[in-house]
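To assess whether ligand presence alters the predicted conformation, the chain was also submitted together with 2-acetamido-2-deoxy-beta-D-glucopyranose. Input:
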Amino acid sequence: MHPGGPMPRINKTVVLALLIATSSIFLLFQLYYYRQYVSKNGLHALTGKGYLAGKEAQWHLVKRFLSLAHKFSLPVFLADKASLSLLSQDTVLLKDSQLKEPHCTFLCTNRDFITFGLLGNLWKYDASLLEAAEERGLELLEIRGKDPRLVSMDDLMGSEIPLHLLFRFNSRLVHVVVLYERSGNYLWHGPLRLKASMDRTFAPFRKLDFGRYAGAYDRPELILTTLDGLDVRIPKNFSRFLKENSNSHFLECRYREAAAFYQLYPDDTSPEAMDFRMKAKSLLHLAARVLTDLQVPFWLSSGTCLGWFRQCNIIPYSKDVDLGIWIKDYRHDITQAFQKAGLPLKHKFGKIEDSLELSFQGLDVKLDIFFFYEDGDIVWNGGTQAKSGKKFKYVFPRFSLCWTELLELKVRVPCETLDYVMANYGPDWNVPVKAWDWKSSPPNVQENGVWPIKEWDDVIQVF
Ligand SMILES: *[C@@H]1O[C@H](CO)[C@@H](O)[C@H](O)[C@H]1NC(C)=O
């Protein structure tokens, strides 16, 4: 029993009223401050740490990264596939800096990473970058690899250079791909290979746009623009850059194997061999210029491909330069373009529908262009014997095209080079053979009938 007995009824009502009044005032205050806070800091601020979700977090990271890039004068440009795909010339011209409150449209995609390219030759490496990144709350993972510009058959070691930089913040990533200029006047980036000691969970490595393979690009012209309120450099012709990106796979020459080959079969350094190589090199450069101007993709074929694959050079006794072109890329003005460049047509065998082959006469060196036809799981090119009208067919397994460098030129080769070379030269491709007969030596040659005599004037043209 309470000694004072029950509380008087009137007191209870007053207490209740007081309680209601104070909580109402409290609520009003809360509402007032809520409104003040929102108008000052934006709605996001209220949700605390959670505001760094989605696009905002990405924007925040890009801002931090770009301020770091600015401080260290990193020559970076936007190289992100998803972001560049969102752009159209119009949006670039209409600088969205004119908007009062920019939104994160281009730099925030629904991926949790964004990619920048860094021009390695214009970059002065500064070790304090790591510290500065940490100060900004960014974790940095640097991936190094061999410098291919220093690797050659004489020096297989090479030194290590930074290939990829990964800046991480809140499980989001800025992937910086370092692009180095190589002797063929193109940009190269290395593959992204993790060392055993590295954290495999640092980034979604498999999803990244760059790094699965080494890649090669023409140097893009860059322009400064404003995207989502931030100043960024982008490739001026970003659709070209995107197109290059989808076919950028680069193969390094097999310097180690080539050095071993030359141990067994010392190189011919006679003046005649050197002279031939010099002429073949300038013919290759000239042919590349003509075909690139026509936008006709081509690759090293036959002996020229074998020379690159086996010995990273032209085979001095091969006597010609061989290129392959898909027949779908044939253009009627090819012959005229070569003639204009000082390479007259030497012979034309076959026709567009069947076994087309063109030869142009360079300075002591012949340029052979073989057109390739696709047929199910195989591809083939044709051959014609001028004096008998006999047709031949050279069959290869299907292949895709990769970039490589030969004699200071960025050129394509079949990515599946070993299969290609094996088809053409058999399992002993690694042994030099000087007596090679195109009608009988290749293991992939098939007899393919004879041209009808009435077609000879058209399909066998020798000049
Ligand atoms: C961009 O490059 C493509 C080749 O991929 C070319 O066809 C096009 O004309 C270029 N655009 C501009 C604006 O230069």
